[in-house]
Design brief:
By secondary structure, this protein is mostly helical. Helices cover about 45% and strands about 0% of the residues. The chain contains three helices and no strands. The chain is flat, with a radius of gyration of 40 Å. The protein starts with a helix and ends in a 23-residue tail after the last helix.
C-alpha cells in the first residue's frame, strides 16, 4: 500500500509542477511586444512608407543586349583554336649522351 501511495504522491507532484512551469514566466506586460504602441502609431500615420521609385513599372533596358546575354548563356562558347606548333626547349644542337 505504501508503494501505491508513493506513486500517487509522485504523480500528483508532477502534475502540479507542470502547471507551475507556466506560472514561473511572470511578466509585467500582457505580451512581449507591449510598449511598442508609439512605434506602431507612427507607422500607421505614415503617408507612404515605401520608396517613391518602387512605383516605377517602366524598367529601362535594351532588348537586343538582353537577347544577346540570353544567347550567350544558352549556346556554349566555341573552343579555342588548336595550334600545330612544335616547341623545342633547350639549346639548339645540344645532344644528350
Amino acid at each position: 500500500m505504501s508503494r501505491n501511495r508513493l506513486l500517487l504522491v509522485l504523480l500528483g507532484c508532477s502534475l502540479l509542477a507542470g502547471c507551475a512551469a507556466d506560472y514561473l514566466n511572470n511578466y509585467d506586460t500582457m505580451t512581449l511586444a507591449a510598449g511598442d504602441s508609439q512605434k506602431a502609431n507612427q507607422l500607421l500615420q505614415t503617408v507612404d512608407p515605401y520608396n517613391p521609385a518602387s512605383n516605377n513599372t517602366k524598367i529601362e533596358g535594351d532588348g537586343t543586349r538582353a537577347v544577346g546575354a540570353v544567347q550567350r548563356y544558352k549556346v556554349p562558347p566555341a573552343p579555342p583554336p588548336t595550334t600545330n606548333m612544335t616547341v623545342n626547349v633547350g639549346p639548339a644542337g645540344a645532344s644528350t649522351q
